[in-house]
Amino acid sequence: MRYLTAGESHGKQLTTIVEGLPANLPISSEDINESLLRRQKGHGRGKRMQIEKDLVDIVGGIRHGYTLGSPIALVVHNDDFKHWIDVMGEDPVAEDQNIRRVVTRPRPGHADLNGAIKYGHRDMRNILERSSARETGARVAAGAVAKTLLKNLDIEIIGYVKEIAGIKAKEYEDMPMNERKDISEESAVRCLDPEASQKMMDAIDQAKKDGDSIGGVCEVYIEGLPAGLGSYVHYDRKLDGRIAGAVCSINAFKGVEFGIGFEAARKNGSQVHDEIAWNKEDGYYRKSNRLGGFEGGMTTGMPVVVKGVMKPIPTLYKPLQSVDIETKEVFNASIERSDSCAVPAAAVVMEHVVAFEVAKAITEQFPNDQFPKLKEAIDQYREEIRNF
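^ Chorismate synthase, sequence as received from the core. Prediction below:
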């Protein structure tokens, strides 16, 4: 499985092409729209979420509710493009016309300056339009397709917020999956801890008043994965490594943890590793899950728990100083529409990029031309390892 996205923040549309899904997987636009609309929610979102209502247009690879085995093409139209035609249109600009909204002042923390240097652009709108987090809408669409595959294989996944601006939610290690989903959906900041949720919202409101932004930590929790998914043989097939790379590829994410994560550096080995046990009903399991469901680059059969660290969004309404690339004068960085905190939305994005990596690993390890045969193979594998 793989996917490719195209489109700019204020361009005509976001396009996603997903390749490698098995044929005869039941899927509908509702499956994808649910994920797209979840991404737009969250306390602290900016005005862009009021302008766009992200809904998918399936334009290839699905017929009568089932995948064909061919590439799936998904489109999310940008309704706001009608106001940006002269800025973002594809047609050449007449010699007697000037391009509007040219950006020559790179914003600290963004891709603006580095991208301009790399690709030779003097107008950094060419950079910021693609490096915008708007692109994550296309990635959520791809992840929604992957989530549909996982759900039909009895694998459930959910993303939520663990921390915002230093405000930490309580640990809920034994909370059932359905409760994690319900509570996070009801929370305006996608947090499982009601007390922490209110404090997080207060911190977001204060940051908005101050013209500042705040970051946090998201967590993705997965149940139903069999042991042995991934590989210890080759470094690039270790599933936790793939997931870590996918998480760090999300805009503004700067770190990843599995299980207790960096806390393992401050504990003895006896406080880090998970003892192995066995019973007739479940087969092998771990008495704890400090390693977050991974050993040796492979799943253990325990829930996968991965955290991602999101920095504060760098677009500030009290902008930091920068240097104009044309005049070399010092200016306050330009402002594009932005959120004071996007951690709740980022939890949804992280959920979907992780889902895609897991689905990709499954289709690599099991027969993947036809979904019924894939499901049969995984069910058989689950039974084999239970009796191993």
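The domain at 2-386 is CATH 3.60.150.10 (Chorismate synthase, AroC fold).
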